[in-house]
Q: What sequence folds into this?
C-alpha cells in the first residue's frame, strides 16, 4: 500500500495516517458576508493539482502538512506546520 | 499418452507413487505430478466439460492460463488440475457436469448452440417473470463447484516481507537480473508461481540439452547466492502502490515491500483459432513440452504441429525424440526465418507444409478426441484456399503460433505499453521509477538476448537503489525473428473455432458483437464476456483484440487493452482474511461486570454492559430493576469509556472557549459545567463536562465514540492556532464510575477524606482527594437526575475502587446498572444523547441546546455559522412526548415517523418505559407548530398502524431537578 | 495490592505471583523456558510516568536525567530504567525492577514549569523474548525491524494489529528482546492475540523472573 513520510517518524504505510482535509485559509468571520462564509463551509476546490493537506500520523499523534498532487497521488513533500519546527526540535 | 522413461531434469519422483481417484476411478501418479499430468499419463483425455456448451475438454496450456480442467476435491473448490500437485487421498470430480466428464448429459447444449449466441440472455428473457426460473436453470448448468457451508475455517496468517529488489519470474532473464542486482549489493527476492525455478529454458529444448543445462546452472547460482532468496510455488498476485506486492503461497500471503520491482514474467502462449480447436488432444506447444520434460508424459502418438515461429520446430523435435510420429509441420508463414531448429526438422525428414494453415480438426467417432486435421494452403492475403485441402490423420495437434506478454503487473504499476510490429506484441514503453521489465514480457525472445536484457534490468535496479553509479542503457535489440503470427484465426461456416475457452466464445460471436455495435474493446469485452472467465483473458484477450482490430481495420495500438486488475490468479478468501484482527477495547472494570452477569453490547470498539442478568428475569425486568435501584437506593455504572482530556497552560481556558460553544473563563476552580461542541457548519458533534481544576488546568469529557477523533482534532487546532497549552488524552489511563442515587452520599462519605456535605460539595462541584486510599477526582453530575458522583481514578486502581464501593454499598442495597438503564434514566430527565437525539444536520437550536451557546465570545468553531442559523426559523424542534398511562400494544421505536396531515412531520429519537411515571416517554423532532405542550401527535409504526402521543414538557421526572441537587436528610444519612 | 494489570485476568492461575510495586505480577510459570523460543511477559507492574511539552527536555535535564538527543530515541537510566523520547517533545520514564525515579517525578506534578505537562501512564507493558520474535513481528507489524541499527537505540511509534504501540527493539543474551507499550484498554486484546500467535510459533506467556534474570544479566 501507499507510503507516506511522517516528518518525525519516517516512512510508514498509509494505514498509519489520517487525512485531515485540505489546508484552506478561513475567511475572517468578523468581516466575511454570509455568502462568502457559506462558500467556505460547503464548497471545496476539486480541481486536480498540487494541494497542501493536513495529515496525522495516528500512533504518535503527529500532525503535519503533505503536499500531494491529487491527479497522480504523488506526495511531493511533508513537513511540520509553521514555527512548530523551530521551537520543538531544539532540545 | 503414456509415461516415458526417465527424462533428465524431470520433476516427478518415481520412488514415491501417489494415487488418487478421479470420478470414482483410481489413477496412479508420482510425487511431483500435477493432477492433469497424472491423468494424461494414465490415458485419460477428457478432463472437463466447457462452461456453456459442455464440450469435452483436455489439456490446453498446462500453465493455469485456461480452466479446461477445473475439479473439486471434497470441500476444496475449483482446483486447477493443470497445476495442482497430486496428493494421496484426493477424490476428484470435474465440476458442473451432469453425469461426469464422459457422459455429461448437458452436452445437448452444444447441439442447441444456434439458439445460444453471444449475449442471448439480453434478448431471450423479455418478460420479468421468466428470468427467475431461467436464472436458476442457468446457474445449475453453469455453476462452478458446489460450496459446503460446513467447511471449517482455516486460518492462514499473513506476514510482512521486505527486500531491495523483487524479481517476478525465474526464467533466464529473471535469474540473470537477480544475479546482477545481488552482485551489486542488493537484497533480492525471486518469486515464481511454478513448483521449480527455471522457466521455459527447462522445457523448450528442441531435443538439445544445452539450454536446460544453462538454466539449471543459473538456478543453482541463485539458490546459493547469499543475497538472493528464491520463493517457488509463490505467485506475485498484483502490484500496489510503492512496490507493495502480495506473494501468494498455498499456505499464506506475504505482503512484500520492495524498493524496486523487475517483472520477468514471460509471455502466455496463444492458441490458434480453427474449427474444433478445443478437442482433447489439441494443445499449446509449451503444454506438450511441459508434459514431456516436467512429468515424462508422452502428449500424443501422432502429431501435427501448427507453427509460425522457431518454437514450433523445437516442439516438433521434442515430440519426435520421445517416439511421437510427427506427421507434418504446418508452417503459417510465407517466408520463415531459417533457424537451427528449422534445419534440424528438415534434416529429420519431417514434412513441412509451407504457407499453410489448419482449417479444422475432425473429432473421432466418440467426439472426445482428434482423428484428423484438414490443412489448407494460404493465399497471398493469408486466406485459406479451401478448394485445395488435404486431410492428415493424427490424434493430437500442437499449436505454436504466438505469445502475449504477461504484462498484468506492469499495467498495474502504471507502465504504458505500445504495440511493436516487429514482435507483434505489446511491449513496455514508459515505466515509472523503480519498475523494470526484461525477457519475453519486454519483447525479447532470443536466448542470449534475454540474458543480456536481464542483466541490464538488474543493474538498472541497483542503480536506482544507489548501489552502482551508472545506469545501463535499456535499449532492446532488434529481434531476429517475429515470435507471433499477426492473425492466427481461421473463420469457418460451422463455427466452433474457439477464441476464449473459458467462456465458450467462438469467432462468429465477435463478428456478431461488432455487428450489434459493441465495437469498442471495453464494450466488446462486456458483451461477449471475453476475458471475464476464471483465466481472465490470459489465452484470449490478445486474439480478441486482433479480431476487433481486423474488423475495424485499425492497428492494435488504436484498439487498446482492457484493465488488468489483481489478483493474477484467484486467491482464497481465507488468505485475505488472515487471522482477522479486530481490535477491542475493555474498561479496567470489565471482569467485575462479567462476574456480575453483564450482558454485553458493543459501543464502537468497546464492550459495555447493557444490563446485568438476574436469573429468572427478562431483559426488560432487569433493566427496570436497575432503574428503580438508582431512583430509590444507589446504583453504580462504569463510565470509563468516556473520552477524558486534560488541558494545561496559559492558553487553556482561551482554547476551551474557542472549541466549545460556551464560556468557561469565569468558572470557579473546583466547579464543572456542561459543554457543547459544534463543527464549522454549526452542527452538534459532541458534548461533555468541563471541570476546572486550577486557573490554567481543565479536565473535560467527551462521548465514548468521539474521544479519539476529538483528541486528534484538538491537537491539530492547538498546532494550527499555535496556542500555549498542552493536551493529554487520559481516556485509557483513567477508570471512571457514576455512583448515583439518594444513598450515594452516605455510601461514599465513610470512604473518602473529601467533605461531601452539600454546603462543602454543592451540585456541579469538583474535588480531588482519596477514596479508599485511591487518589480520585470527584464530580457531582446530573445526567441521570439523582444525587450522584462521578469518580475518576487511575485505571490500574479501578477494580479496587469498584470493590470498595460495592462492599460499602451492600447494606445500602447498591446495584450495578448498565447502559440500558442509564439511557432510560436520562430519558426520564429529557437529556439529549449526541448521535441519538441529534444527527448529521442537527443544530443546537433544533435540539433545544441554544442555552449552551454563548455568542458573546471573540471566536469559537461554528460561531459564524450559528449567527446565520440563528436568524432562521428551525424546520424542526426536539420535544418530549408521552403515551397514555394505560397504553396497550406495540409502542413506537426510535426512528418511527410522526405523521401530520398525511405527510412526514418528524421522527422519534428516543423512547422508553418509565416505571416511575408508569408510562412511555420519549423525545421526537417535530415541526415547530406541533411542539406546543398538550398537542396530540400520531406516530406510524412499521406495520403502518398509528399510535397517538401527547407533547409533554421535560424533564418528565422530577421536573424541578430537586433530586440531583438536594436530598432529604433521611435519605442522605441512612 | 491495589494496582491491577490490564491483563490481570488473562494470566494463568498455575503461575506464582509476587507483589511488585503494589501490582500482582506473574513471577514464574512452569513454561518459562519457552522464553528462549518466544516468551511474552507482562511487566506492567514497573513504575512509569510521562511528560510532554516544549519545555520537557530542559526540565528533565535540569533534574539531572540523561535526555535522548534525537526524537524517537531512548537511553538507559540508573538501576535498569529507561527514558524514551517519543517523537520530539514527549518522554516516557520507566523504572527497572529496583528503581524509583518515576514516582519521584510524579510527585513534582504540582510544581511543573511552563510548557511541561504531566502524562499519566497506565500502559500494558510487555516484553517479547526469544529467537522467534521476528516471526511474530512479521505477522503483526509492518515495520522492518531487521533493517534498524540497534546501536542508535531507536524507539518506534507504530501500529500493531490495529493498536497504536511504542516499541523498543533490542537483544539480550544473543536473542531478540523487544519492549512494547500500548493503551491499557487495548491490553487484553493485544495480549490474547499475541499469545495465540506465539503459541502457534512454539512459545507463550512467561513469568517476570525470566526477564529479571535476563535484564540483570544473570
A:
Amino acid at each position: 500500500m501507499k507510503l507516506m513520510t511522517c516528518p518525525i517518524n519516517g516512512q510508514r504505510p498509509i494505514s498509519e495516517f489520517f487525512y485531515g482535509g485540505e489546508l484552506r485559509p478561513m475567511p475572517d468571520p468578523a468581516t466575511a458576508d454570509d455568502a462568502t462564509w457559506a462558500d467556505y463551509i460547503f464548497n471545496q476546490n476539486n480541481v486536480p493539482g498540487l494541494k497542501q493537506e493536513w495529515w496525522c500520523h495516528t500512533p504518535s499523534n503527529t500532525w503535519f502538512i503533505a503536499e500531494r498532487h491529487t491527479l497522480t497521488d504523488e506526495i511531493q513533500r511533508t513537513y511540520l506546520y509553521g514555527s512548530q519546527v523551530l521551537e520543538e526540535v531544539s532540545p | 499418452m503414456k509415461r516415458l522413461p526417465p527424462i533428465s531434469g524431470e520433476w516427478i519422483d518415481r520412488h514415491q507413487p501417489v494415487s488418487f481417484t478421479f470420478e470414482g476411478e483410481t489413477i496412479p501418479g508420482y510425487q511431483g505430478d500435477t493432477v492433469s499430468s497424472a491423468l494424461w499419463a494414465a490415458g485419460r483425455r477428457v478432463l472437463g466439460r466447457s462452461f456453456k456448451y459442455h464440450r469435452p475438454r483436455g489439456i490446453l496450456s498446462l500453465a493455469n492460463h485456461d480452466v479446461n480442467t477445473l475439479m473439486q476435491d471434497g470441500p476444496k473448490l475449483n482446483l486447477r488440475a493443470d497445476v495442482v500437485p497430486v496428493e494421496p487421498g484426493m477424490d476428484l470430480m470435474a465440476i458442473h457436469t451432469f453425469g461426469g466428464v464422459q457422459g455429461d448429459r448437458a452436452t445437448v447444449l452444444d447441439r442447441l448452440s444456434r439458439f445460444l449466441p453471444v449475449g442471448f440472455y439480453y434478448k431471450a428473457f423479455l418478460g420479468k417473470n421468466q428470468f427467475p426460473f431461467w436464472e436458476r436453470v442457468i446457474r445449475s448448468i453453469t455453476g462452478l463447484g458446489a460450496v459446503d457451508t460446513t467447511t471449517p475455517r482455516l486460518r492462514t496468517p499473513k506476514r510482512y516481507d521486505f527486500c531491495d529488489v523483487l524479481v517476478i519470474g525465474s526464467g533466464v532473464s529473471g535469474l540473470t537480473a537477480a544475479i546482477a542486482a545481488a552482485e551489486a549489493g542488493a537484497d533480492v527476492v525471486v518469486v515464481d508461481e511454478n513448483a521449480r525455478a527455471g522457466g521455459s529454458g527447462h522445457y523448450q529444448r528442441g531435443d538439445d540439452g544445452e539450454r536446460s543445462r544453462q538454466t539449471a546452472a543459473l538456478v543453482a547460482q541463485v539458490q546459493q547466492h547469499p543475497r538472493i532468496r528464491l520463493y517457488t510455488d509463490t505467485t506475485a498476485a498484483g502490484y500496489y502502490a510503492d512496490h507493495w506486492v502480495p506473494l501468494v503461497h498455498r499456505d499464506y500471503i506475504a505482503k512484500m515491500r520492495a524498493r524496486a520491482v523487475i517483472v520477468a514474467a514471460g509471455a502466455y502462449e496463444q492458441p490458434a483459432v480453427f474449427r474444433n480447436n478445443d478437442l482433447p488432444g489439441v494443445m499449446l506447444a509449451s503444454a506438450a513440452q511441459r508434459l514431456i520434460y516436467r512429468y515424462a508424459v508422452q502428449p500424443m502418438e501422432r502429431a501435427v504441429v501448427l507453427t509460425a515461429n522457431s518454437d514450433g520446430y523445437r516442439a516438433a523435435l521434442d515430440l519426435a525424440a520421445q517416439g511421437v510420429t510427427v506427421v507434418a509441420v504446418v508452417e503459417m508463414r510465407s517466408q520463415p526465418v531459417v533457424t537451427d531448429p528449422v534445419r534440424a526438422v528438415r534434416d529429420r525428414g519431417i514434412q513441412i507444409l509451407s504457407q499453410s494453415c489448419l482449417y479444422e480438426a475432425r473429432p473421432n467417432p466418440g467426439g472426445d478426441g482428434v482423428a484428423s486435421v484438414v490443412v489448407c494452403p494460404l493465399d497471398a492475403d493469408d486466406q485459406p484456399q479451401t478448394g485445395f485441402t488435404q486431410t492428415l490423420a493424427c490424434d493430437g495437434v500442437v499449436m505454436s503460433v504466438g505469445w502475449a506478454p504477461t504484462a498484468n503487473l506492469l499495467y498495474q504499476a502504471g507502465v504504458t505499453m505500445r504495440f511493436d510490429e516487429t514482435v507483434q506484441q505489446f511491449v513496455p514503453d514508459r515505466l515509472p521509477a523503480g519498475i523494470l521489465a526484461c525477457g519475453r514480457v519486454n519483447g525479447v525472445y532470443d536466448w542470449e538476448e534475454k540474458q543480456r536484457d536481464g542483466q541490464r534490468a538488474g543493474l538498472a535496479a541497483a542503480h536506482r537503489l544507489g548501489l552502482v553509479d551508472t545506469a545501463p542503457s535499456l535499449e532492446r535489440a532488434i529481434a531476429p525473428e517475429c515470435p507471433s503470427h499477426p492473425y492466427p484465426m481461421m473463420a469457418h461456416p460451422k463455427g466452433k473455432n474457439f477464441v476464449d475457452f473459458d467462456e465458450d466464445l467462438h469467432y462468429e460471436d465477435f463478428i456478431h458483437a461488432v455487428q450489434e455495435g459493441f465495437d469498442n474493446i471495453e464494450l466488446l469485452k462486456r458483451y461477449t464476456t471475453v476475458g471475464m472467465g476464471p483465466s481472465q483473458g490470459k489465452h484470449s484477450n490478445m486474439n480478441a483484440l486482433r479480431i476487433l482490430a481486423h474488423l475495424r481495420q485499425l492497428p492494435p495500438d488504436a484498439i487498446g487493452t482492457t484493465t488488468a486488475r489483481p489478483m493474477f490468479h484467484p486467491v482464497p478468501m481465507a488468505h485475505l482474511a488472515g487471522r482477522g484482527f479486530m481490535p477491542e477495547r475493555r474498561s479496567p472494570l470489565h471482569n467485575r461486570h462479567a462476574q456480575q452477569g453483564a450482558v454485553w453490547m458493543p459501543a464502537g470498539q468497546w464492550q459495555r454492559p447493557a444490563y446485568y442478568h438476574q436469573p429468572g428475569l427478562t431483559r426488560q425486568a432487569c433493566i427496570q430493576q436497575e432503574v428503580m435501584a438508582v431512583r430509590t437506593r444507589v446504583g453504580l455504572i462504569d463510565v470509563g469509556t468516556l473520552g477524558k482530556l486534560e488541558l494545561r497552560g496559559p492558553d487553556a481556558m482561551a482554547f476551551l472557549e474557542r472549541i466549545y460553544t460556551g464560556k468557561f473563563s469565569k468558572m470557579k476552580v473546583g466547579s464543572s459545567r456542561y459543554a457543547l461542541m459544534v463543527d464549522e457548519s454549526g452542527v452538534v458533534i459532541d458534548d461533555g463536562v468541563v471541570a476546572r481544576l486550577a486557573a490554567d488546568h481543565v479536565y473535560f469529557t467527551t462521548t465514548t465514540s468521539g474521544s479519539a477523533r476529538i483528541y486528534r482534532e484538538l491537537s491539530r487546532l492547538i498546532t494550527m492556532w499555535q496556542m500555549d497549552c498542552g493536551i493529554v488524552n487520559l481516556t485509557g489511563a483513567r477508570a471512571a464510575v457514576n455512583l448515583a442515587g439518594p444513598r450515594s452520599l452516605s455510601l461514599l462519605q465513610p470512604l473518602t477524606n473529601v467533605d461531601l456535605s452539600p454546603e462543602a460539595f454543592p451540585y456541579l462541584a469538583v474535588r480531588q482527594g482519596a477514596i479508599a486510599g485511591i487518589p480520585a477526582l470527584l464530580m457531582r453530575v446530573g445526567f441521570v437526575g439523582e444525587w450522584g458522583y462521578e469518580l475518576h481514578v487511575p485505571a490500574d486502581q479501578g477494580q479496587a475502587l469498584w470493590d470498595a464501593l460495592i462492599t460499602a454499598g451492600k447494606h445500602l442495597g447498591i446495584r450495578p446498572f448498565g447502559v440500558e438503564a442509564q439511557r432510560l434514566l436520562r430519558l426520564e430527565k429529557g437529556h439529549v444523547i449526541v448521535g441519538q437525539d441529534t444527527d448529521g444536520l442537527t443544530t443546537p437550536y433544533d435540539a433545544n441546546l441554544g442555552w449552551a451557546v454563548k455568542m458573546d465570545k471573540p471566536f469559537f468553531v461554528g460561531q459564524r455559522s450559528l449567527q446565520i442559523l440563528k436568524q432562521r426559523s428551525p424546520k424542526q424542534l426536539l420535544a418530549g412526548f408521552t403515551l397514555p398511562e394505560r397504553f396497550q400494544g406495540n409502542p413506537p421505536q426510535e426512528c418511527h415517523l410522526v405523521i401530520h396531515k398525511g405527510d412526514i412531520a418528524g421522527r422519534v429519537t428516543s423512547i422508553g418505559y418509565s416505571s416511575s411515571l408508569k408510562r412511555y416517554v420519549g423525545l421526537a423532532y417535530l415541526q415547530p407548530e406541533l411542539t406546543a405542550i398538550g398537542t396530540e401527535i400520531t406516530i406510524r409504526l412499521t406495520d403502518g398502524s398509528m399510535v397517538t402521543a401527547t407533547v409533554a414538557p421535560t424533564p418528565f421526572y422530577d421536573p424541578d431537578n430537586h433530586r440531583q441537587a438536594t436530598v432529604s436528610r433521611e435519605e442522605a444519612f441512612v | 495490592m491495589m494496582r491491577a494489570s490490564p491483563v490481570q485476568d488473562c494470566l494463568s492461575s498455575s503461575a506464582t505471583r509476587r507483589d511488585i510495586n503494589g501490582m500482582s505480577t506473574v513471577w514464574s510459570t512452569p513454561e518459562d523456558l519457552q522464553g528462549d523460543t518466544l516468551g511474552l511477559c507482562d511487566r506492567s507492574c514497573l513504575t512509569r510516568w510521562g511528560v510532554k511539552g516544549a519545555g520537557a527536555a530542559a526540565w528533565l535535564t535540569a533534574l539531572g536525567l540523561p535526555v535522548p538527543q534525537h526524537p524517537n530515541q531512548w537511553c538507559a537510566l540508573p538501576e535498569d530504567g529507561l527514558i524514551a523520547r517519543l517523537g520530539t517533545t514527549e518522554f516516557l520514564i520507566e523504572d527497572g525492577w529496583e528503581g524509583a525515579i518515576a514516582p519521584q517525578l510524579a510527585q513534582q506534578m504540582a510544581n511543573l514549569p511552563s510548557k511541561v505537562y504531566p502524562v499519566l501512564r497506565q500502559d500494558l507493558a510487555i516484553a517479547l523474548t526469544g529467537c522467534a520474535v521476528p516471526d511474530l513481528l512479521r505477522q503483526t507489524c509492518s515495520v522492518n525491524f531487521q533493517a534498524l541499527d540497534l546501536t542508535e537505540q531507536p524507539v518506534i511509534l507504530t501500529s500493531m494489529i490495529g493498536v497504536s504501540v511504542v516499541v523498543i527493539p533490542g537483544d539480550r543474551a544473543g536473542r531478540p528482546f523487544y519492549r512494547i507499550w500500548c493503551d491499557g484498554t487495548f491490553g487484553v486484546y493485544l495480549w490474547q492475540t499475541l499469545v495465540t500467535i506465539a503459541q502457534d510459533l512454539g512459545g507463550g506467556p512467561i513469568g517476570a523472573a525470566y526477564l529479571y534474570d535476563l535484564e540483570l544479566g544473570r
Summary: The helical segments of chain A are 34-42, 84-89. Residues 84-91 of chain A have pLDDT under 50 and may be disordered.
